[in-house]
Amino acid sequence: GQVVYSIAEGTERGASVGNIAKDLGIDAATLSARKFRMITGSSKQYFHINASTGTLSVNEPIDREQVCELKSACLLNYELVLENPLELYRMEFKVLDVNDNSPTFPLSEYHVSVPEFLSPGARFTLPNAQDLDEGTNSVQNYTLSPDEHFHLEMQTRGDGSKYPELVLKKALDREQQAAHRLVLTAKDGGDPPKSGDVPVIVTVLDTNDNAPEFEHSVYRASVLENSPSGTLVVQVHATDLDEGPNGEIRYSFSNTTSADLQRMFLIDPHTGEVTVNGVLAVQRPLLEMLIEARDNGAFGMSSTAKLLVEITDVNNHGPEITVTSLSSPIPEDAVPGTVIALLSIIDKDPGENGKVNCTIPDNLPFQLKPSLENYYSLVTSGLLDRELISEYNITITATDLGSPPITTQKTLWVQISDVNDNPPVFSADTLEVSVEENNPLGAFLYQVSASDLDMGENGRVSYVLRNSTVAGSALASFLSVSLANGSIYATRAFDFEQLRSFHFQVEAKDNGSPALSAAITVNVYISDQNDNAPAILYPTNQNGSVAVEVVPRLADEDYLVTKVVADDEDNAQNAWLSYHLAQSSDSTLFRLAPHSGELRTTRSLRSTDFLKHRVVVVVRDHGEPPLSSTVTVGILLADTLPQVLPDFEDYGEPPPLLNATNIYLIVSLACVSCIFAAFLLFLAVLRL
Questions:
Q1: H/E/C letters for each residue in 234-301?
Q2: CA distance 166 to 520
Q3: Domain containing 604: what range?
C-alpha cells in the first residue's frame, strides 16, 4: 500500500522518478481503464504518471525551501486511487536538499559600539546568518576579515545552538581610530560551498563599559493557541552594572526575529513582559525569538537571550470529511463487503485533539472500515433490496478526542439500482371466465394483470398464451392475448353444444435478463343461448308422410294414443319443453299432457266417430325467444291394423259404417216406403 521515492529539489521537468506500476505490482495497461488519479493536499501537482507505461516523472520542479520552509525533513504525500476494484496506494516523496541557497544576514549592515576603555576579551554578539538549506548545506562556520583589534569566536547557547561573537583582542584607542570596518562571512557546508558577507562597523566609545546581562540565556514558555490578546507569556529580566542611564535597560525583539513573530507578540520595553498580540495562527508548535536588552547609555550596550514559546494546542479544529470516491447507484445484489465510498477524514489539531472516531448509524446495511491512515472505506454489511428501500442517506459522524470533542457530519446519498429478482405475480392462481356461445369474432373475454416489483425493463410485463390444445385444436385457434396489457380475445365463435368449458394458461414474463415469469390458469365456461329448436324423436314424419297411430274403435276414456318424445340440445330453461295441440280434427276427442307429451282420449270412442283423425302437436322450449317444432299424427280407429294405411291429407269425412250391400237394401226399402205412402195417399183421396 505504500512506496517511498527520493528526489532532489530542482529536478528538471520530465525527469523519471520511478515506475509506479512496477513498484506497486500493477499492470500498467489497466491504469487508464481503472481511472487512476493522484490525490495530494498540495496546491501544485509536482508529479505525473504516464497512463500507458506507469512511468512516474517530474511535472514541475520542486523548490524544497518554498514547499517545506524550515522543516528538517521535506516529505510530499500523494495517494493513488484506482477503481474497478477500488484500491488506494500511498506514495511518499522525500525531497532532498540541494545547496542552492547562500547564507544571508537579516540586515545589510551591522553596527557595534565599543567603549574604548574595555579590556581585551570583551565580547560582542554578532548576527546569525540564515540559510534556507538544511543539514550540511546550512551555515557551518563564520570568518572575520583580519583585524589587529578583533577576532571571531563561536559560542554555544543552552539549547546547543551556536552564534558568533566579536572578541576584543587588543585595547582600542578612539583617538587613533574611531571606527573599525570589518566583514563577517558565513559559509555553508555545500559542495561547492556558498557564503554570504555583511559589513560590521565597530564604533569606539569612551563610556558605558558594561552591557546588560540576562538572568537566563534561554527562556522557555508555553501558551494556549487560542489565548486572547494581552495574555502574559513570560517576563525576561536583565541587569546592568552601570549606574544612571548606562544602567537603565530597554527590552525589544532582536532584528533577527521574524516580522510575523514580532506582530504576533509584544514585549514591554520597561518590564520585559512578553504578551500575545493577536491570533496565534502558526503551524509550528515551537516558536523561537531573540530578545535584546540594551542600556540607555550614550552608546547603549546590549545582549540577547533566546525565547522559546511552545504553542499548546486546543481543540479548535473539527474533523474534515472528504469523499474521495463514491459509487452510486449500486446494484441491489451487491455482496456484503462491496466498497461503496472512500473517505478521507483529517483533523488539523495535533495529538489527541487530532485523533478521530468515525461512525455511521447501526440500523443501516453498511459499515465503515479503516483503510490507510486517515482513510475509511464504506462497505456493505448486509443484503440490499431495492423493492424495500431504494435509496439511503448515510450520515457519517466524525468526532475528535479533544475536550470538549468537536463533531462533524456528512451525509452520503446512495441509490440502489434494480436487479431482476422479482417475477411477475398474479393476484390469484386461477381465474374463471364466462362467455356466451355464438360470440362475435374478436370478442373481449377478460383482462389478466400481473404486477412486478422491479422497475424499468425488469418490471415491464408482457403476456403470452402457453402452448396447449382445446378439443384437439391449437389454443391459438380459439383465443389471442394482447402482449402489452393481457386482454384476452376470442378468435372464433364458441358453440355450447360442442364445447361447454375448457382451460388454458396465460404466462406473464418480464423483460429482465434473465427473464422471470409466472402463469395463471383461466377456466372458460361457455353459457348457452337458445339457438336449437326442439328435435322430435317420436313419432317422426318420414319423407313428408304423416305418422299414423292405430286406436281400437271402442277405446275407453283416457286411452293412451301415443307419446310425443322430443329433445333440445340447449341447456337449462332453453331445453325445458312443453307440448301443445296446435290442431285437432276433433278437439273433444283427444287431449295432450303439456309436460309428458302423452296423447290420450278424453272420452270413450263411439261407433259414430270418424274413423281417421289428424292431430298437429307443437313442442316448444322456454328460451328467450322460444323455439318450437311440430309433428302431425294421424289416428286410425280400427280394431286391426290394415294392410294399407289410408291417406290422412283429407281428414274429416264420415266414417264408412255401411258396406255396398247395406246401401242397396236401404235404397230399396226407401223406394218401397215411398210407393206405399203414395198408395195410401191415393186411397185417401178416393175416399174423400
A1: EECCEECCCCHHHHCEEEEECCCCCHHHHHHEEECCCCCEEEECCCCCCCCCEEEEEEEEEECCCCCC
A2: 108
A3: 535-637
Query: Are 634 and 547 contacting, i.e. CB atoms less than 8 angstroms apart?
Result: yes
Residue 683 covered by a domain: no
Within 10 Å of residue 481's Cβ, how many Cβ atoms?
24
Other beta carbons within 10 angstroms of residue 77's beta carbon come to: 14
Q: Is residue 241 part of a domain?
A: yes
DSSP string, 378-410: EEE-S---TTT-SEEEEEEEEEESSSS--EEEE
Q: Is the domain of 429 the same as that of 521?
A: yes
Decide: 640 and 573 in contact? Cβ < 8 Å. no
Residue type, 554: L
CA distances, 515 to each of 421, 448, 452, 457 (Å): 9, 19, 12, 10
Pairing state of beta strands 2-8 and 87-96? Answer: parallel
Q: Has residue 135 been placed in a domain? A: yes
**Cα(6)–Cα(19) distance, integer angstroms:** 13
Q: Are residues 324 and 410 in the same domain?
A: yes
Indicate the DSSP class of residue 72.
S
Note whether 523 and 539 are same-domain residues. Answer: no
- Quick one: 357 and 295 in the same domain? no
Q: What sign results for the dihedral spanned by CA atoms 318, 324, 329, 335? A: negative
Mean pLDDT taken over the chain? 86
Q: Percent of the chain having pLDDT more than 70?
A: 96
354: helix, strand or coil: helix
Give the C-alpha separation, 642 to 612, whole Å.
13
Question: Scanning the structure block, which residue is given the C-alpha cell 277405446?
Answer: 555
**pLDDT of res. 655:** 45
CB-CB neighbours of 502 under 10 Å = 18
Residues 410 and 442 occupy one common structural domain: no
Q: Tell me which of 369, 396, 417 is where a domain ends.
A: 417
Same domain assignment for residues 505 and 540: no
Secondary structure (H, E, C), 157-176: CCCCCEEEEEEECCCCCCCC
**End-to-end CA separation in angstroms for the chain:** 175
Per-residue pLDDT at 651 exceeds 60: no
Is residue 157 within 8 Å of residue 306, measured between CB atoms? yes
644 in any annotated domain? no
Q: Average of pLDDT values for 69-83?
A: 80
Burial of 665 (0-12, 13-18, 19+ CB in 10 A): exposed
Q: What are phi and psi of 68, to 5 degrees?
A: -110, 0
Q: How confident is the model at residue 1 (pLDDT cuts 50, 70, 90)?
A: low
CB 105 within 8 A of CB 17: no
Whether residues 623 and 554 share a domain: the answer is yes
Q: What residues contact 334, with CB distance under 8 A and at least 6 apart?
A: 380, 384
Residue 503 · residue 524 · CB < 8 Å: yes
Dump pLDDT digits (tens) for 523-575: 999 888 888 889 888 888 777 678 888 888 888 889 998 999 998 888 888 88
**Residue finishing a domain among 527, 554, 589:** 527
pLDDT for the residue 244: 77
One domain for residues 247 and 290: yes
pLDDT in tens, 207-218: 776 789 999 999
Match 309428458 to its residue by C-alpha cell.
596
Higher pLDDT, 32 or 525: 525
Helix (H, G, I), strand (E, B) or coil at 101: coil
Digit-coded pLDDT (tens) for 616-638: 999 998 888 898 888 888 888 88
From the list 542, 588, 592, the residue with the least C-alpha distance to 564 is 592
- The count of structural domains within the chain is 6
Q: Do 448 and 543 contact (CB within 8 A), yes or no?
A: no
| Dihedral pair phi/psi, residue 179, rounded to 5° | -145, 145
Q: What is the CATH number of the domain that holds 298?
A: 2.60.40.60
